[in-house]
Every structure is written in C-alpha cells, then in structure tokens.
Amino acid sequence: MVVSHFLKWVNTAKVTERAAAAGALSRAYAQHEMPFEDRCAAEAAMTLLLDDPSSKVRKAMAEALALSRHAPPQVIAALAADQPEVAALVLARSPLLTDADLIERVANGAKATQLLVADRAAVSMELSAVIAEIGEADACKVLVANAGADIAPLSFRRMAERFGHLGSMREALIADPRLPADCRHMLLMKLGEVLQGSPLVVALMGATRAERIMKDACVKASLTLIDSTRVEEYPALVTHLRVRGDLTASFVIRAVAHGKVDFFGEALVGLSGQSEERIRSLLAAGSDVALTAAFRKAGLSDVVHAVLIRALKVWREVANGKRVAGAQEVSWLMLKEVGGHEAQGDLAALLKSIHLDALRENAREHALAIAAA
Length: 373
Description:
The chain is mostly helical. It has helices spanning 2-10, 15-30, 36-49, 55-65, 73-80, 84-93, 99-108, 111-118, 125-134, 137-145, 153-163, 167-174, 181-196, 199-205, 207-227, 234-244, 249-257, 261-272, 276-285, 288-297, 305-319, 327-337, 346-372.
C-alpha cells in the first residue's frame, strides 16, 4: 500500500523529493528487512524509477544499492549501463556484477569505465587479463597499482609489450614485486630502444655510437637484473632471452665472469636439454671433460670452453671458502687463458672489456667508500 501511494506521488513530486524518496526506498530494500510482498512491490518501484528523467534519482538509487548483495540484479545492471556519474558508483563497488558483466563493460565502455573496473576492491585473474589485453594504458596502470588485482604473468607480459614504451607504465610495472623477471628484461630493452631513438641522444652521440652504448648498457642492466631475480624465475628468464636472441655466448661469458653461476646452470639446462640435477652436479664438481661435453651440447663454441672452465674453478673455490675473489680477478684469469692483454680477437676483446668494467666498478666503489668515511 505504501509503495502504491509512492508510485502515485512520484509522478508529481519535485526532483529533489523524488531523489530522496528513491534513496530511502532503495536503502530499505537493501537492509533486507521488508516482508516478501513489500519487497516485491519495492523492487517493481525501483525498476520503474530507472526510467526517471533525472539522473539525480538514479544516482540516489545507485548510492544506496552499490554495496548491497541483495539489490535486484536487473536494477544493478541498468544502473551500471547508465550515464557515467550513475554507473561509476555501481561499476566500482557492486558485488553483484559478475566477471562476464565487467568484461563486457571493459570491452564496450569508455576509458572512465575501464579505470573504475581496474580499481575495484577485487579484480579476478580473468578480468585482469582482459584489461591487460584491450584496456587503455591508464587502465592498465591503475590495475597494476591495485593490490586487490590478481594478475597472471601473461597479463604482465602483455602490458609490458603494449605499453612498455611509456615511461609512466614502465615505472608502475617495475615497482610491482609481482612482475616476472622476463618482463623486467623486456622493459629494460624497451627503455634502451626509447633512449636510442631519442633525437637528443642521436644528436649528441650519433646514431651508431648511441646504438652501441645502449646495447652495452642493456647487457649490463640484464646482468644486474639476474641478481634481483628469484631462482625459480630463472627458467622463464632464460627462455625469454633465448626467444629474443639475447642469450648469446658473450652474454653467457659476462654472466659467468660476474659469478652468476646458478643462472649459467639454468641456461645450460635450457640450451643442452640435460636435467637440472646433472648440470648442477657438473658445475659443482664436474671434470673439464664433462663440462666441455655439456658446453658442446649447449651449442657453445669450443673457443669459449677454456675461459668458462677457468672461471668456474675459481667460483667453486669461492663457494667452498677456499678463496676470496670477485669479477675483477676472475675476468683477469679468464683473459690470461687467451693470452692476456696482448691477445687479439673477438673473445680477447670481450674479456678485456669485462675486466676493464670490473676495474672501473671497483674503483668507483672504493672512491664512494672513501667519501662516505
């Protein structure tokens, strides 16, 4: 009877009065305390109010029903499709909107809709995947910043592929501890590409020198990345580097020279097809002959075998507490294997470069230590 009077009154009431009444009716319904018949009548009334010409009325309903699990689903669906100021309340909060509903909104909605969905208190892995695949850059950035979003490694990868050239997106992704190591490497490469193509960098250095410097910087950054990568992520990182063509002999030599033996082992597993247990055993105590055979299976040229074995023997002694050494000493011993500073050829040039870099890094650290004392 109350609802009957309400429906007669609403046709002549002012907008502010209709909005207040719609909000009160919706709150009463959301509290789930009405008798069944009254609930049915109230539901019918709210459905009718969806056609109210004033958005203030529908907004009042959205405010009252957005968090309710007992709201009429047809009312929530209609409010979610309403104009932005009304729909925002429901899209951001309603627990009644399913993943299918939200995916449809992301696919067909405007940028503002994508932002609201990406910032919901809980975003499922499926919904995150859709946002990562078709969402705009700002929506993806909001998604990454959302601690309540369940994001699969593949979705991180797609966002890195699509928007890694954008500085703000790179920062958001790299700041996320959930970001897989291969995605971090991808972002490093994209940063290098952006800098290499910068008109200012090209004007200052020239295109050829800029390309060489950026490649060197990316290689060094990739080595540093290994240190911050969990061991269980090594297989994915190795696969990523192989697919990109970055897992070269020179990169492997640099990694071993800097003591990245566990990563080198994972690279050997991927390249040779041998088991992880077998490779781990060889690196820990394998003979020169056994290591050489493993290197050949991995496709490493014979000319690099001796320098790798020399480095591994030093790192074994370091691991066993029999020696103290770092990249500077190891790279020097590797260089001695090919004839020292007088040696010629690509391998010698690479080892000289690694050794000089190690010298510079140690000198820099020493200077900083003196300055801090």
